Hints:
single chain; six-stranded mixed β-sheet; globular
Amino acid sequence: MSSGAARLLVMRGITKRFPGVLAVDRASLELDRGEVLALVGENGAGKSTLMKILGGILDPDEGEILIDGEPVEIPDVATAKSRGIALIHQELMLAPNLDVAGNIFLGAEHRVWGPLQRLDRASMNDAARELLERIGLDIHPRTPLRQLTTGQMQMVEIAKALALDARIIVMDEPTSSLTVAESERLFEIIEGLRRDGIAVIYISHRMDEILRIADRITVMRDGKRVADLDARATNHDEIVSAMVGREFSAWFPERRHDIGAVVLEARDLVVPGAAEGVSFDLRRGEILGLAGLVGAGRTELLRVLFGVDEALGGTILVDGQHVEIRRPSDAIARGIYLAPEDRKLHGLVLPLTVAQNISLPDIGNYEPRWTLQRGRERQVATQQVGKLGIKTPSIAQRVVNLSGGNQQKVVLAKWLAMEPKVLMLDEPTRGIDVGAKAEIYRHMAELAATGIAIIMVSSEMEEIIGMSDRVVVMHERRITGIVRRAELSEERIMSLMTGKERAA
């Protein structure tokens, strides 16, 4: 590793205060040319704040930044870009109404100067084509952005960074919405960036990815850098222990309770886009994992069971009785609730308070005489906040201001307040840190122990194996196998997920 003076980037003594919060506390970070540095930590550890300071979005209260050994000021985003620093946010910052070339050069358009200034579309298209070839994305520069997959949009963001001659690219949870194939392509591109001498700061909660692609791992906790690890010499448990400040041997809770009678059954249920029906049952107190690659039909199945989409055939039984579920209100009336994959878009009303979000699905019972019973709303919300350990200054806090893990708990709270019979969780720990994940796992185990039946969709193999009593595996919208806990293994599930094996 090079000496401090020769390093591409050095951040030291960085401190940032917000009213009542010390977000970053004398944090430091070093980065070499062509290095992939994983930046990890729980939500609220200070990672995003530190990167916003690097990207010119926030000003530090204290500390200094050196590039190529020279102190620099980064007062705004334009200055960061001029220094070769590009941030690729988890929520992609692209314009869907523009084409690919227009997005790559947005804010840095090529122009033809003269009496009538105009865009030099030919030059932009040629330059965009070279950038797309460099990252191996085979699409035309004039393709409308809205026609691209999420993975292709991620690649356009990288091309956009390369168009600025970026020397440092920050990627925040880049694979959170990618398919396995798209993630593999991203890793290949990162390897190419490394060979070209471009440094990458990679923020992710996925330990397998970090250990695979990172050269070094910087761990933050409570606004401070607490560890700097060689990715080749560390392991999953050491990283997690540094992140949470304690040993994490109890990653998944022990579960010792009896599984009850069948509460929900699907018989030859045909989800939209499927060529055949699926059949399975769910028992009281059971956590039924639903595994499959992106596009396998897992979310579509939950949407049918919750009445968002109508089944094209087949039947649903609740407690042995045939039921019609044509809309979410039909499912809710039978105690079947869904915590959707995108909690911000479909699971919460972000501008509303914690209390308002918790009461919203059952609002009719809070206003029996056309007057909202605020006292009852506060009582129920306070009870759920305490039960789930939701970290919020008060139940009057707007949900948009909570961390991802606490937002997910609010989603759970609104349904638990209604005493569910079946709780369906679509990617319940996506985008939240390891500490919050452990809490969600504990709450799931406690709910199952009370007799609530849970269906859990997850793309994390460790989560599927660690939490499920049985796993339903899907491939191309059909069930390829149902595996009992005693028979669970990564190899078996992957074989079924890819269609290589199909259980009899």
